[in-house]
Structures are given as structure tokens and as C-alpha cells.
Please model this.
Amino acid sequence: MLNKSQTVAAIETMMTEFPDVKSELKADSDFHFLLAVILSAQATDKSVNSATPALFRRFPQPEDLAVADVKEVEQYIKNIGLYKNKAKYLVACSRSLMENYHSQVPQTMKELTSLAGVGRKTADVVLADCFNIPTIAVDTHVARICKRLRIVSQKDTPAQIEQILMKKLPRSMWIRAHHTLIFWGRYRCQARKPLCETCPLFSVCQEGQNRLKQDIN
DNA sequence: CTCCCGATAT
DNA sequence: ATATCAGGAG
Model:
């Protein structure tokens, strides 16, 4: 397992390759950003961004989506996976925002996860990207990278990974480290194509060493 | 744990 | 053909 200083060093190496990291989800308001993050579950940002402009034009405010027909919402997002569940979430979420939060996106974990379709990961993303509140959202990329590098152990759950990262990284790094890990997972150390041959972290990466032994790549 | 689920890369 | 993609609810 990588210790604190090794973990910080690994993240800093990633930062040199991706100096300007931020969310790639497009949105013009906190409300629309929340919807985009809900839609992004098990889907690529690209597919979400291709659907959201029309959706957001049709439903500018929580009040508009709260009274919408779920079937109509489905038509706007049917090119995204899991679209039937997501359509329900969007309407129910908007209704709750309207009825319980004055149509404002709340700023606490507890309130955010009370919304339909919003779990811990989505809440973490909103806290960090909308309100600049330090969190480390653990998605599929963050989990994979941390496991390959042995920043965490193979059996750790996303919630455990989040706790370990918060211990190993200074709070001032959390939000940027999160985005950096996403970019690293998306463009450098992909699930099916780790690109170990040219990886600057190869020498400290347990997964890289394993692949070398087994002659993968 | 299972179910949800289209688009894309491999 | 199959794995993967900014997961969450029941």
C-alpha cells in the first residue's frame, strides 16, 4: 500500500500530465449540473452532454420538471443508459427540490442524498463542483486507479476509498485530486487499456508490475 | 444482491 | 460478442 507521501507524489505526477482538470459535464446552473450528474451514472459524459442542451431548454427550472410527464422526459434522455430510472429520478428530484428546498440545490450531504437519484458519489460531486466544499467523490475511475496503484486495497468499497484518500491527502488537494484521478482514469489508465508502456507511474504501480510479470500489454 | 440500459471501444 | 461508462434504488 502506498503511504501518504507516496500517494501525494503519485497524484502530483498525474497533475503534471493533466494541469487543467474540471468537470466535463455541461450545465448553466447548479440545478442543471445536479441533473447532469444524476444522468451520468454508468454513462459517458459525452452521451450526457449530447442530451442535456435540449432537456435543459425544455425544463429551465425545478418547477418545470416537477410537473413534467415522465414519458416526455424519457424522450429527451433515451440515448443515455438506464434512462427510464433516470427520468423518474429527475422528476422526483425536482419535486423534492421545490417542496423541501425552495427550489435551491442544498449544500449538505444529508440533504443532497435525500433527493431521488442522488447517492453519496453524486452528492460529493455537487458539493465540490457547485459549492467548492472539499470532498472526494469515488466513481469507477477513482476506484480503479486507487486499486491499481494500491493506494487502497482491492476489497475497499467506494465509501472506504473516500475515507482513505481523505486521510492520505491534505484537504487543500481533495477537489483537484478527485478531478485528476478522473482524467487519469479516462485518458491515461483506462479500464481496458492501461498504457503501462509509457506510464510515468509504472515503477510505483503494483498493477503495472503484475502485468509485466504476466506479460500482458 | 439484482436490476436498470444505450452508445462506444476493443 | 463483450466490457465499460462520473451509480442508485429496492
The longest helix of chain A spans residues 83-100.
